[in-house]
Specification:
The protein is of the alpha/beta class. It contains 13 helices and five strands. A five-stranded parallel β-sheet has the order 2-1-3-4-5.
Length: 326
């Protein structure tokens, strides 16, 4: 009798799990279609796919590119960057782009800022539904000898709606016209704010620097590997690469330099580039150009739109001087 009851209970549990997974999968698809599809990543991608035939310059990377390279002031450019994007994600995305026969890219602009190689952001793979188009998660887990992580990737993708309250709330506010749709200009996202108006600037900058570097490897081997792989991809496809150090506030730089592991950071990176045969790649260094201009920043290490316009005009002029504009 007990064995029969156990079998009945097991069958009920099994059927419940099947029903739960079916309903959950439906909710996830609905969440992806209705909510995630309106996120900045998906919107940027749709905008890019519609304009890619005219894109001769790609700005790829994280928020420093997303907020700092103003596509309106650099003709034939498109910003395919995403906030918090790491070099692993950028590599897979660039590989997908360069396989597209419609795309005819001549120049890629990438950032190599202080935080670009820090391990703090290496394992962030949010929005699996978006990145699944480009990233081979099995290959990624296999390379890192971390196959159990595939289960984590599956969970993130299959249950994306869990914890998605903020995204749903934002979409509702937009639909009710209580909140404007975030503007995108060929992928560039204007950022508001004025760092000069902030109180406790040094403290805020120190918190930001700690977030980027405290307890992290400033030159993470995996991020360096995928960075070099991106350069290899560009070379194989005869695409010029320009590396840019975007402006940060003096407060942020000072706070970062108090972290001992960052000493000689740029020199070490230069040695790595030379060791891999890329010592001739142009590096445009603007990290300190606005140290007297806090009005150009939205926070301690991101430019606002005014700052982005000025730095993009400077980048354009420098590219013209180097005869690198398409």
């Amino acid at each position: 009798y007990e064995l029969i009851e156990l079998k009945k209970f097991s069958l009920k549990v099994f059927l419940f799990l099947i029903l739960f997974l079916v309903i959950s999968h439906f909710l996830n698809r609905l969440y992806t279609y209705k909510v995630l599809s309106n996120s900045l990543g998906f919107r940027t991608e749709r905008q890019f796919q519609a304009a890619k035939q005219d894109a001769r310059i790609l700005g790829i990377g994280d928020s420093h590119i997303k907020y700092g390279l103003h596509a309106e002031y650099l003709e034939n450019s498109f910003i395919v960057a995403n906030s918090a994007e790491n070099y692993i994600q950028s590599y897979y995305k660039l590989n997908g782009y360069l396989e597209d026969e419609i795309l005819d890219v001549d120049l890629i602009i990438m950032s190599i800022d202080l935080h670009s190689f820090s391990s703090y952001g290496k394992d962030r793979f949010e929005n699996i539904e978006f990145w699944g188009k480009y990233i081979d998660y099995y290959q990624l887990a296999l390379r890192n000898n971390d196959l159990p992580r595939l289960f984590d990737f599956w969970l993130q993708g299959e249950f994306a709606y869990v914890g998605g309250f903020d995204e749903v709330s934002t979409l509702i506010k937009i639909q009710l016209e209580d909140q404007p749709v975030t503007e995108l200009i060929n992928g560039y996202q204007p950022k508001n704010g004025n760092f000069r108006e902030f109180e406790k600037k040094k403290e805020l900058a120190a918190l930001r620097a700690d977030y980027h570097f405290k307890g992290s490897d400033p030159l993470d081997p995996d991020l360096l590997l995928y960075f070099i792989k991106m350069l290899d991809l560009a070379r194989e496809n005869n695409v010029q690469v320009v590396l840019v150090r975007f402006p940060v506030t003096a407060e942020y730089y000072s706070a970062a330099m108090k972290i001992s592991s960052l000493e000689e950071h740029y020199e070490k990176l230069g040695s790595i580039l030379a060791l891999n045969g890329y010592s001739s790649i142009p590096i445009l260094d603007y990290h300190d150009v606005f140290w007297q201009g806090q009005d150009y920043f939205s926070d301690s290490d991101h430019l606002n739109e005014h700052g982005a316009i000025l730095i993009t005009k400077t980048i354009k002029n420098d590219l013209e001087d180097l005869n690198l504009l398409p």
